[in-house]
Amino acid sequence: MSTVATTQIKLTPERSRPTVRARLQDALPKIVLAPSFAITIVFVYGFILWTIYLSFTNSKTFPSYVITGSRAYQRLWGWTFDTDPPSSWYTSITNMGIFGFLYILICLALGLFLAILLDQKIRGEGVLRPIYLYPMALSFIVTGVAWKWFLDPGLGLEQTLHQWGWTSFHFDWIKNKDFVIYTVVIAGVWQASGFIMAMFLAGLRGIDGEIMKAAQIDGATTFQLYRRIVIPLLRPIFLSAFIVLAHLAIKSYDLVVALTSGGPGGSAWLPSNFMYEYTFKRNEMAVGSASAVIMLMTIVAIIVPYLYSELREKPR
Amino acid sequence: MSAIATPARQTASRQNSGGLSTKTINRIVIYGLLALFALFYLMPLFVMLVTSFKTMDEIQNGNMLALPKAPTFDPWLKAWGETCVGLTCAGIKGYFWNSIKMVVPAVLISTMLGALNGYVLTKWRFRGATLVFGLMLFACFIPFQSVLLPMATILGSLGRFGVSLQNSVGTSFGLGNPTVNLVFVHVVYGIGFTTLFFRNYYEAFPNELIKAAQVDGASFFQIFRRIMLPNSMPIFVVTVIYQFTNIWNDFLFASAYAGTGDAMPMTVALNNVVNTSTGVVEYNVNMAAAMIAALPTLIVYVVAGRYFVRGLMAGAVKG
């Protein structure tokens, strides 16, 4: 569209001979965009290929460029809970499953619930909304430090309830290797659910009031109204929120570090922690790269169809 | 459906005439739940804040939720100027400035590039523009673990090159400086988002204005400076806030490329303070340090919350 406009301009003053200057003017937009695009190609896509390459080598402490086949992947998947020591990778992906499932589910449920409550013409909404949302402005490290303190059995919640007289109360998940991942869920939900609430609230405000009124006149109860009409209308928000949360969950790294320092014996690791430890601390670069590739593939499987449909939907 | 629903409504209206109507009860339940959740969200911040004003004595013997009996500002001073990060005991102030020195250039450069890219991608469309944008957009979503190691390798060789430059020419041109490295990394992996923000904003900007300016002979940069920029204030605020929050809060890149030494950003330093195992753990100092790390983004949130939310939304809902 605008390309047409450019050619027209070029034609008027310099019809006889397109000077270097004019040609430069014409190419200027592309020249301006080129550095960013080149950076993206090299530092994102080039680096991804590099990581994939490394995952097929025998790199240990330093990158090696001798292809040794899929040894790293075999190590990753052939190493199970039964081997000694038990597999950190299986722990990481099991944790990812637990964390990802609960984190996404609870954030969606809580976010929708709070949005519906806030949408009931609440006085003081302007005060409540920022309170629900502020954790999103904090660093995962700060969130981790705060919750580490709050959940510490000797200092935090347990101690407080003991002082209030409920001495049988016992809550040591943060020190328990089987439950430590659930504390990551708690802190993660605390941080992100307010934002999901804001997304749903924006969706609810966008629903045509006439539809709601019509349903009410038909005699639908509030519950029916939400279940049959409002929630189906919010489907696009569910999708966006799911994408945001899945993406946050797979990238979660800082929270595990700050909240649990990896948990007892690495029991709170997620794949991101596994990758970091193996690449930079345990001198197993090939295995670390293989785990990074698997993380990338998971994201690709979720994001690419979404981006494709988003960019497709609005042809111009 | 309506047949079932009608009696319920009749009961509701019948109860209305009585003392406490269903409606009032509903309102009480709703406000109660909302208040309960407000407590849930506020609790950790509250605990962090009160703990940072308590003495160690009060922390060990008192209640976590109690207000400080004798509020003291000492933990804050100690966190700022004296506490140990690893082996150096000079407080977190140096690391706070490290973060500032990293965030300001990274935010400005990535935002400016994003504005230009958005301008080109919407107002100077060329064949393949959507593909270019798609490729840049996808870059926002990759797990950074998949580029972490190659980037470390490149930064390492640039650092060695910087040292040899230093020896031969006398200056390394910033090569190998961890802060410069982090600025570079954050710009590289931030332009996807900034481009997205500006592209979506400029998409709605009337093309007629651009065309009119072109007919008047305005050049590419003149149009950008005179027409686009003056009308981009809101999206600049959104982008700057988004980038500021993200880069300030980053931990992965910071720990991978500046994880040790004097160049650590705030988040890494905070993690080190909290996990320093030598001596008595000073919880009040830890909490004060966490508050100091959280304050810049919290202040931005309080001052410009509307724009903060808009940025998050724009990052989530594309189009």
Automatic annotation (TrEMBL), chain A:
<protein>
    <submittedName>
        <fullName>Sugar ABC transporter permease</fullName>
    </submittedName>
</protein>
<dbReference type="Pfam" id="PF00528">
    <property type="entry name" value="BPD_transp_1"/>
</dbReference>
<dbReference type="InterPro" id="IPR000515">
    <property type="entry name" value="MetI-like"/>
</dbReference>
<keyword id="KW-1003">Cell membrane</keyword>
<dbReference type="InterPro" id="IPR051393">
    <property type="entry name" value="ABC_transporter_permease"/>
</dbReference>
<feature type="transmembrane region" description="Helical">
    <location>
        <begin position="131"/>
        <end position="150"/>
    </location>
</feature>
<feature type="transmembrane region" description="Helical">
    <location>
        <begin position="179"/>
        <end position="204"/>
    </location>
</feature>
<feature type="transmembrane region" description="Helical">
    <location>
        <begin position="225"/>
        <end position="250"/>
    </location>
</feature>
<keyword id="KW-0812">Transmembrane</keyword>
<feature type="transmembrane region" description="Helical">
    <location>
        <begin position="96"/>
        <end position="119"/>
    </location>
</feature>
<comment type="similarity">
    <text>Belongs to the binding-protein-dependent transport system permease family.</text>
</comment>
<feature type="transmembrane region" description="Helical">
    <location>
        <begin position="285"/>
        <end position="308"/>
    </location>
</feature>
<dbReference type="GO" id="GO:0005886">
    <property type="term" value="C:plasma membrane"/>
</dbReference>
<feature type="transmembrane region" description="Helical">
    <location>
        <begin position="31"/>
        <end position="53"/>
    </location>
</feature>
<dbReference type="GO" id="GO:0055085">
    <property type="term" value="P:transmembrane transport"/>
</dbReference>
<keyword id="KW-0813">Transport</keyword>
<dbReference type="InterPro" id="IPR035906">
    <property type="entry name" value="MetI-like_sf"/>
</dbReference>
<feature type="domain" description="ABC transmembrane type-1">
    <location>
        <begin position="93"/>
        <end position="308"/>
    </location>
</feature>
<keyword id="KW-1133">Transmembrane helix</keyword>
<keyword id="KW-0472">Membrane</keyword>
TrEMBL record, chain B:
<feature type="domain" description="ABC transmembrane type-1">
    <location>
        <begin position="96"/>
        <end position="304"/>
    </location>
</feature>
<keyword id="KW-0812">Transmembrane</keyword>
<dbReference type="Pfam" id="PF00528">
    <property type="entry name" value="BPD_transp_1"/>
</dbReference>
<dbReference type="GO" id="GO:0005886">
    <property type="term" value="C:plasma membrane"/>
</dbReference>
<protein>
    <submittedName>
        <fullName>Carbohydrate ABC transporter permease</fullName>
    </submittedName>
</protein>
<dbReference type="InterPro" id="IPR035906">
    <property type="entry name" value="MetI-like_sf"/>
</dbReference>
<feature type="transmembrane region" description="Helical">
    <location>
        <begin position="28"/>
        <end position="50"/>
    </location>
</feature>
<dbReference type="GO" id="GO:0055085">
    <property type="term" value="P:transmembrane transport"/>
</dbReference>
<keyword id="KW-0472">Membrane</keyword>
<keyword id="KW-0813">Transport</keyword>
<keyword id="KW-1133">Transmembrane helix</keyword>
<feature type="transmembrane region" description="Helical">
    <location>
        <begin position="179"/>
        <end position="202"/>
    </location>
</feature>
<dbReference type="InterPro" id="IPR000515">
    <property type="entry name" value="MetI-like"/>
</dbReference>
<feature type="transmembrane region" description="Helical">
    <location>
        <begin position="287"/>
        <end position="309"/>
    </location>
</feature>
<feature type="transmembrane region" description="Helical">
    <location>
        <begin position="133"/>
        <end position="159"/>
    </location>
</feature>
<feature type="transmembrane region" description="Helical">
    <location>
        <begin position="223"/>
        <end position="244"/>
    </location>
</feature>
<comment type="similarity">
    <text>Belongs to the binding-protein-dependent transport system permease family.</text>
</comment>
<feature type="transmembrane region" description="Helical">
    <location>
        <begin position="102"/>
        <end position="121"/>
    </location>
</feature>
